[in-house]
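Following up on my earlier thread - several people asked me to post the actual chain instead of describing it. Fair enough. Here it is, all 186 residues.
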Amino acid sequence: MPQRSDLLKLLALRSVKVGAFTLASGRQSSLYIDARLTTMSPDGLVLIGALGLQALRDARWSVDAIGGLTLGADPIAYAISYASAGTGEPLRAFTVRKKAKTHGTVKLIEGPFRRGDSVVIVEDVITSGGSALRAAEAIRQAGGTVRGVLALVDREEGGRDALEAAGLEVTALARAAEILPFVTTA
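Reply from S.P.:
Thanks for posting it. Predicted structure:
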């Protein structure tokens, strides 16, 4: 089983930048985490798939599918779904669009999501919790039940509190404070 410390080191090496940044939420921060640089790499996918699947088991979330708001959640959900394939309880992955398609099936949720599914929402980086809340609302409107939120990284800036205040349990594979000791500034 891959070690969590391997994921922390990989995130620090590839995804974390220190400087002056404006985040998607509009907030200013001295820390930027571009999780895609880790989640879209082969070694990152292997770590995230195994560790994410274990986190779901540890949280005792019995679910049918996993996914979240595109684009950040996509590779994480796919990695966990793939890791679950050899188990007795494979998970389907889905993607929540930022807005519904205007052609074809006019879907907001893509993939094998089904009405009645019990799901976990995936988030690459939690800052304010807004993306996970949007995905959760889309799932509920489509007839699904949200069991919780699984984040790759919790920035520890209030997003977890906002999600928990909305009644969602949150688990993170890493916290910003755990990654920072591995960041080198050269």
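The chain has one domain: 4-182. That should answer part of your original question.
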